[in-house]
Design brief:
Elements: H1 18-25, E1 29-34, H2 43-53, E2 58-63, H3 69-78, E3 85-89, H4 93-99, E4 105-108, H5 115-118, H6 123-130, E5 135-138, H7 143-150, E6 153-156, H8 162-174, H9 177-185, H10 195-204
Parallel strand pairs: 1-2, 1-4, 2-3, 4-5, 5-6
Helix pairs in contact: 2-8
């Protein structure tokens, strides 16, 4: 099976780090999710975990649309973080890639009890990694093992366990320098996620 890849030409070569330096200095961590808004994607569990953590040095941007959007917006309205969690609506993939590198953390906590998700090869995670954005993901086979092995982010064993998600987010919000470690480890990963590299490697094998 040929794994998913990223079209590197769609990712801006130059990234303006001025904003990021300011955010790191102020210890504000910008968290991002992009994709379909369904219950199985676990965004609601991230929101509940942030509530439990009771920290305020973050923002959460949710990009996309789907059947669970109204539920998520209702959950946010009832939370104390209504001013920190933003719904940015539907965007093209090109628009997402043009801003993805400005975020500090990308999340993808899909419910692995859904068989069709358990063995997926999540494109959004590879896009984030190619943009040198650390990730917080479910224990999706293969890509999760690579993330743990090469220290590109954190992996959640049970994406429905609010306590586990809260602890993982706490590690990042309490110690933002951890993100710098993850980012440094991502410096050489970009090329191996490129479609051209993947095709060439597949042909050799």
């Amino acid at each position: 099976m040929v794994p998913n890849g990223v079209t590197l030409s769609d990712i801006p070569k130059e990234i303006n780090l001025d904003k990021k330096e300011i955010l790191i200095k102020e210890r504000i961590i910008n968290i991002e999710y992009h994709g379909y808004l369904a219950e199985s994607k676990g965004i609601q569990n991230v929101i509940l975990a942030l509530e439990k953590l009771n920290k305020d040095n973050f923002t959460l941007s949710i990009i996309g649309y789907g059947p669970f959007e109204v539920n998520l917006k209702d959950l946010v309205k009832k939370s104390k973080y209504n001013d920190k969690i933003h719904f940015l609506g539907k965007k093209t993939n090109k628009d997402i890639l043009s801003t993805l590198a400005s975020y500090d953390l990308c999340i993808n906590l899909i419910n692995l009890k859904e068989d069709y998700l358990r063995y997926c090869d999540p494109m959004k995670i590879k896009e984030a990694l190619a943009c040198k954005v650390p990730v917080l993901i479910s224990n999706v086979p293969e890509i999760a093992e690579r993330i743990k092995k090469d220290n590109w982010g954190l992996v959640i064993e049970d994406s429905e366990n609010i306590d586990e998600i809260s602890i993982a987010l706490g590690k990042i919000l309490n110690k933002p320098a951890l993100l710098k470690t993850f980012k440094n480890n991502l410096n050489k990963v970009k090329e191996e996620l490129d479609w051209n590299f993947i095709y060439d490697n597949a042909l050799k094998n």
